[in-house]
Structure formats: structure tokens, C-alpha cells
histidine kinase (Paenibacillus graminis), 585 residues
Amino acid sequence: MLAKWMMKLSGPFRRSIRNKLILTMIGLAVVPIVAITALAAENTRRSMEAEVISTNLSNMKWTGVYLGDQFAQLNNLIYTVLISPHLSDYLANAEEASLSSQFTAQRNITDTLTNLFYSAGNHVVGVELYLKEYNKLFTINASQSNIESPAAIPAPYKLLFDQNKDFMITTDSTDGTKFQLIRSINRFENQEKLGGISLQIRWGVLDQTLDLLGRGNEHTVFIAGADGRVLYQPWGSAPAAVTLHRIAGTSETQGYFRSDHEYVFYNTIDPVGLKLVTVIPNSFINKSALATMNFGLIIGAVSVVVAILLAVILAWRLATPIVSLARSIQGFGMMKEREVRLSNRVDEIGLLETKLDQMSHRIREHIRTEYLISLEKKSAELKALQAQINPHFLQNTLQMIGSMLFKNSPAESYGVIRSLSDMFRYIIREPEDLAPLRAELNHLNNYMQIQQQRFAVRLNYSLEVDEETLGSFIPKLSLQPIVENAFFHGLEPQEGPWELEVQVARAGEDTVITIRDNGVGIEPDRLAELQGRLTRRSGELWTHGERIGLSNVASRIHLHFGDSYGIRVESTERQGTTVTVTIPL
């Protein structure tokens, strides 16, 4: 019974293309608008989320840089004591000197610490110097200037010695608004810990820099130690224990993670190793996107009504030519008639399906065959082109390494070996033909590190890169052959100093890589012949001539990106050569 009613209701739509088109057009118009309206609200929230993430990562980066500068300045204050001749004299002669000499030496150290205290600014509220061997603790602050012999090693210095650290930051146990910056005093010969110097500093000195992160009502900002423990929190609610645990477990210097209720951004403060943390609740992003979401829902409702009206009008107008086409196709036939696929439809579209099935099948097979033949041809040419590019300087590099092992330090020899290893790892282990420009430049830098070791006296190399271009893709092993060509044909025959400059810049929607040298240049006839090779069509495989590497690079760029991209060479005899590579941004 139900099937009978379904057939009766669907009958007008099964027999008439016009009714089907009207119903289909309404569905196609309304459903996407409803879906897009729903997605627009979510996309608005995601856009706000992406903006908040991007802004906070940038703010965290620069705030971390400024905080690092502040801690570096505090470190420099301690270094003024470490390099003081008074401290060196006291450590060297304290036991052998007379009482008067010892008194003078202690007074000199006290004067040095006092000068440090009064020159450091209001944020430094105390200076201490502890010498373990002589059990002397020098204390300078606003209320006292004292030298004593404590009964036991003071707690901060004992922790410094027990953990064998050179540097440590601890929060003042009696006053949470202050912290101690402690650095050990080491013996030069064996790095034995002789004592330590500490500055007692107000955390408030960092508030002006932390203001760069913004003081949102719902934001929480704090500085944590490497173990995740909160050292200083200028504003915001107390962070959850699970948040502190995840911060302690992060190995990246900068980043963020999202929990169920909040976004947590963190950045490591160099050189002290503390972590700067900002916590933003999810509700902050949802509130920001709410107004835009409401406006989108209103626009979506209006769009649905308009879409229904347009769908009915368009469906009616489209149906008329389809019906006429169905009537005119009655006598259509095909060569080599094959078994016809019968359609389950009984309307005009069913007739079109039956008549056109064989033709579309044969056309698809023909296109597929032609496409596969073309693809196999291009793939074979590309593999042949790529196989021709190999490093030509391996023998010279190995000979240089052998020489360096006898004359240079192990670190310098290892640097060359590491560069060579990275080069061949890049060549062997990366199967893709296209590589990010960042990876290709790293490969070039490894090559140039070896060349600079070989020609350190003569070679002056510079690299200038626009960060926007590093995401571009370039055929793998494109830049090294060009630079290698510059050495072989341009610089090596040139007397005097060598200049090699590589610039990477954005030009509209393209990335332009310029390689210049001050070599002997190229003769006009040879230059014209080379320029002719580099502008040939991409389907041709070049395996002749003196510059196979350069021609191969040009061919691969043509194959991947089309004839509008490639290589251009300009040269003047005795003045140098410029090679310009253009690829899509």
C-alpha cells in the first residue's frame, strides 16, 4: 500500500523533466545556502580563533625577545663582578695575605658590590656574593653592607652547588614580589664551583614589557620555571594544575595548545630558560564572533527565499530546450554499436542516457589513452633530466677534508663533513621532484659552506632572502648546478677576489631568484646560443652542449610550471654573469 502511494506521488516527477528540474533546482539552491549559513557561523568563529592565535603567537615572540634582553642586561651586571680584578685577587691571595691585605681585599669586593647595587637601578634591591672555600657571604642592600661567615651554606647557593648549575632563578620565599638571579663563580682551570653571585630583583621590572601582551579581563599571564611552577603572575586567575603539567612537558621553544576550556600560548625566554605563558578562555573567542554569526543567519534566511524563486524560474526555462533535444536525438546512431546500457528512467533524460552512453564511453577511453601516453612521456623525460644532475665536486671536497684533518681543528673538519653528508642526504632520501625553496636554499648553503672552506681567502658570498618566498616550490637540485656553473665557468678563470651573491625576492605572484658573480663572463656568441637553449619548449630533452645542468634546470621548470617560467642569463665579458630563475610564488 505504501509503495503504491509512493509511486503515485512520484509519478509526475518521474515522467516530466520539468518537474524534476524544478524540484532539483530548489534543492540545489536551498540546501547549499542552509549549509553555507551554518558553516559561515563556524568559519567566523574559526577566523576569529586564527586571528587570536596569530596575534598572540606574534606578541609572545616579541615579548619573549624583550624579556630576554632584560635578563641579559641583569646577567651583564653579574659579569661586571665576575671579571673584576678585585675578585680575582681575593680568590688568588686570600689565604696567603696578611690581615691588613685581607681587609683591603674584602673592602675592595664590598666597594665593587656597592657600586653594582647603586648603579643597577631601583629594581635591584640587593646584591650578594658567597665564597664557599672561605665561607664568606658579602651582603649589600639599602639597609646594610655586611660580611659574615654563615654556619652553613645559604640555601640558594647550596641548591646551585648540589645541582651543579651555572645559572639559576629562584623566587624569594619570604616575598613573592622578588626573585634571585644567581650565577656561579667557577675556577678557570677545572670549572670547580668556588661560590656564587646573586641579585635580588623586583618582578615588577618586567611589568612594562608584559603589558605588550594586553591586560584582557579574562586573560591570565604568568612566568613559569622549567618545571612548570609559577614564579610570577602579574594578573589573571590561577592556572590549572593540568595546564602547568603540560607546559612543563613541552619541548618546543614557542607554540600553543588548546584544552577543553582555554588556549594556552607559551614562549621560552632566552637566555634564562623560563617560560612566558598566556591563557585565554574559549569564551573570549565565542563572544567576539557572536555578532557576526547573528548577522549571517539573517542573510541566510533571506537568501533561501530568493533562491527558491530563482530556482523555479530557471528550472522552467531550462526544461524546454532539454525536451526539444530529447525529441531530436531519436535518430542518433553510433559506429561500432556495442551493447546499450538500458536506463531505468522513462523520461526524456532516460532516452538521452541510452543514446549517448556508447559515445561517451568511447570518448573517455580515447582521452584516457592519450593522457596516459602523454603522462608516461613527460615522466620519462623528467626522470632522465633529473638523473643527469649530480654533485661534481665530491673528489675535491674529499681531498680537502683529508688535508683539513691534518691542519685544522676537528670541529672545522666535522663541519665540512656534516655539510657534505646533508647534501647527499637531500639528494638521495627525498624522492619528490619538487622541493620547498627553504630546503633547496639549505642544500645550497651546505654546498657554499664547503666552497667557502676551499676558497676562504678569495670568496665573498652573500645570501638575501624574502621570508614570504620560502614556501614556494622549485624542482629539486635547481640552484646548486647554477652556482656550480658560476664557479666553473665564471670565477675559477678569474684572477683576484671572487664575489657571489644570491637574492630571493617576491615579484607580484612570482618568486625571483637572482645569482650574480664577478667572473670572466660569457662571450656574445656563446651567450646568444645559451639563451636560445633556455627558451626552448618544455617537451624537448636536452642532452648535448657544455651546460647540461643549466639546461636541465630550465627544462624541469618548463615541465612543471609552463613556458612563462624558467631561467634568464645576462652577461658581460670581464664583468660577470647574472642568472635569474623565475618560479610561481
Summary: The longest helix spans residues 17-82. The chain has three domains: 17-321, 332-383, 391-538+547-584.
